[in-house]
Design a protein that fits this description.
single chain, 327 residues, alpha/beta, Rossmann fold, two-stranded antiparallel sheet, 7 helices, disordered N terminus
Length: 327
């Protein structure tokens, strides 16, 4: 959801970065914004099994929906869950505002255990996850002058064992936890952002990368290397583990949009035309757009009704069905 700032509060924040009071950071969730939907809708009650016959968007909690999807029904999963303590999407039961980092990691482990169940045995799971810094036990975050959207009035405290200004190490904490859960950790792709968002920091390098982890259920799996060969002056070569992909501006009111160029090699290398591609944190639907363009079927799960409507509009889903899942 967009962050709305009162002009007087913005003035008060300037020049007071080290002595802000929590009440000085005012965030207002705009619950009246209407994106509008052009789709038919169907409501599924508790306990009903879900069937996959074509592309579909499920409006509901990721874990609730995943538990009712058929086992071994999707070939590829490409997703980017909400990062811990970085956004307040203003919906009940949202992921990313757990009180502790351990709770956040465990929430994702539970969700991804269901992802593992619905993924085919030769399937591939691509997980994009970013990092952050400890809050120093501040319960708010001021708007960076170069990035107003980072402001929050709710923020988790510093995890036990970490210090103020520590890098959290979320990506590798999560990757190793998933490895412990039985996933094969096959690659750590560096998403290098040539146009990374500037940061107002002077005592460390500006962060300009995120991770995309490649995980599989089994030792052997489907991977089409020819579909993603790189081209250079010497000819064609195997895809490298550093991907230079420009970030993309927000779509509508969604803060963090997947760049299509980041999703394309994931889908091309790990699925065939006609396969199902799942994104359990569908957001504005970019994974669905790429999957459809590449001849795959998409399964999107999104808890936020405004983002569901936004994704439906982008996907021109007037002849499709949004399925609302009762909690």
């Amino acid at each position: 959801m967009p962050v709305a700032w009162m002009p007087r509060e913005l003035d008060r924040l300037k020049g007071a970065a080290n002595r802000l009071d929590e009440a000085a950071v005012v965030k207002q969730c705009n619950d009246t914004r209407e994106v509008g939907s052009v789709t038919k809708t169907e409501k599924i009650e508790r306990g009903d099994a879900l069937d996959l016959s074509g592309s579909v968007i499920f409006e509901g909690d990721a874990l609730t929906v995943l538990r009712r999807l058929p086992a071994r029904s999707v070939q590829t999963v490409v997703t980017s869950p909400p990062y811990w303590g970085l956004r307040d999407y203003c919906v009940p039961d949202q992921l990313g505002l757990e009180g502790t980092l351990s709770q956040y990691i465990n929430s994702l482990r539970g969700i991804f255990s269901e992802v593992r169940r619905v993924l085919k045995d030769d399937g591939v799971f691509w997980l994009n996850i970013g990092d952050g810094y400890t809050s120093g036990n501040r319960r708010w975050r001021a708007p960076d002058k170069k990035n107003r959207a980072r402001a929050m009035s709710v923020r988790p405290g510093t995890p036990d064992g970490l210090k103020p200004k520590d890098l959290l190490g979320v990506p590798w904490r999560l990757a190793l936890a998933l490895q412990d859960d039985g996933w094969y950790l096959r690659a750590d792709v560096i998403w290098n952002k040539p146009n990374a968002m500037p940061e107002s920091v002077k005592d460390r390098p500006t962060r300009s990368h995120e991770y995309v982890f490649m995980l599989t259920k089994e030792e052997k799996y489907y991977y089409n290397r020819d579909a993603v060969l790189e081209v250079n002056d010497l000819g064609r070569r195997n895809l490298r583990s550093v991907w230079n992909v420009q970030t993309q501006a927000s779509i509508g009111a969604h803060f963090a949009t997947f760049p299509p160029a980041l999703i394309e090699p994931c889908i091309l290398s790990a699925s065939r035309p006609g396969d199902f591609v799942l994104d359990p944190f569908f957001g504005s639907g970019t994974a669905g757009l790429v999957a459809r363009r590449l001849g795959r079927k998409y399964v999107g799960i999104e808890i936020h009704p405004d983002y569901v409507a936004l994704a439906a509009r982008r996907l021109e889903a007037d002849d499709r069905t949004i399925v609302r899942i009762a909690a």
